[in-house]
Amino acid sequence: MKEWMETMKALGAAVTENVGFLLLSVAVVAIVIVAAKVAENLANKKNGLEKTKQLQRTRRMVVIAMLSAIAIVLMMFKFPLPFLPGFYKIDASELPIIIGAFTLGPVAGVVIEFIKILLNLLTDGTTTAFVGEFANFLIGCAFVVPASIVYYFKKSKKQAVIGLLLGLVICTVSGCLLNAFLLLPAYGKAFHMDIEALVEMGTKVNSMIDSLFTFVIFATAPLNIIKCTIVSVLTILIYKPISKILKG
User: Fold this and answer.
1) Is the pTM for the entire model greater than 0.90?
2) How far apart are CA 221 and CA 214, in angstroms?
3) Residue 43: other Cβ atoms inside 10 A
4) Distance between CA atoms of residues 17 and 134, nearest Å
5) Hey, which of 10, 21, 144, 239 would disulfide with 109, CB 3.0 to 4.6 Å?
6) What is the rounded distance in angstroms from the CA atom of residue 110 to the CA atom of residue 120?
7) CA distance 179 to 223
8) Which backbone phi and psi does 130 adopt, to 5 degrees?
C-alpha cells in the first residue's frame, strides 16, 4: 500500500510538472478515438452491420477488459536490442490489442491501448514525464488503427495481411516523424538533456547514428519494424482460433 501511495505521489508530481504535454496527449487520444469511430461506422454501414456490432455489450466489455489485462502483462516483459539505445525496448503488448481491434473494431483497439497505458501508469508511475507512455500509445495506435480499419471493411486473410503491412509502414513513418519533432525533444526536456546527448547514446551502440536524422532512421525505424513484424506474424498465426473464442 505504501509503495502504491508513493507511486501515486510521484505520478501527481509528474502531472504538475508536465501539464502542457499531458493536455496535448489527451487531445491526441480524443482525435484518434474519433477517427477510429468514424472509420468503424463507415465499415459497419458498408457491411450492413448494426452499430452495436454482433456482440452483446457486456461480452464486448469483458473481452476488452481481458485483452487489456493480457496487454499490460506482456508489456512487463520488455527487452532491449543490442544495436539500439537502452531506453528503446521491445515487447509484444500490441498483440492482444490488434486481436481485439480485428475482432471488435478499431475503436476497441484504441480503448485497449489506452487502458494498457493507464494501468501501466497506475502500477508503475512514469519515469519519462508521460513522454514514453504517450509515445507508446500514439505509435501503437499508428499500427493498430490502420491495420484494423483495412481488415474491418472486408474480413479475409488477404485483407488482414494488407492491413498489417499498411500498419507497419504507417507506424514506422509516423514513429520516425514523431520522435524527430516531438517525442525525443520532449524526452530530452524531461531528463534535462539536449538532443546531442541522446544522439550520443545512439552512437555508443551504433556508429551509423551521428545525428537526429540517423537516429530515427537507424534506431526508431528498426525498433518499430521489428516489433510490428513480430506482432503481425503472431496475429496471422493465432487470430482465427482466438477470434472464435472471443466471439463466443
Assistant:
1) no
2) 10
3) 20
4) 15
5) 144
6) 15
7) 12
8) 80, -5
Query: Model confidence over 214-226: pLDDT tens digits?
Result: 999 999 999 999 9
* 10, 125 Cβ separation under 8 angstroms: yes
DSSP string, the chain: -HHHHHHHHHHHHHHHHTHHHHHHHHHHHHHHHHHHHHHHHHHHHHHT--TT-SS-HHHHHHHHHHHHHHHHHHHH--EE-TTS-TT-EE--THHHHHHHHHHH-HHHHHHHHHHHHHHHHHHH--SSTTHHHHHHHHHHHHHHHHHHHHHHHS-SHHHHHHHHHHHHHHHHHHHHHHIIIIIHHHHHHHTT--HHHHHHHHHHH-TT--SHHHHIIIIIHHHHHHHHHHHHHHHHHHHHHHHHHHT-
**Closest of 89, 83, 90 to residue 203, by C-alpha:** 83
Please give the Cα distance from 215 to 221 (Å, whole number).
9
CA–CA dist 137, 32 (Å, integer) = 10
- pLDDT bin (cut points 50, 70, 90) of residue 22 is low
AA letter at 81:
L
As a whole number of Å, the end-to-end CA separation of the chain is 38
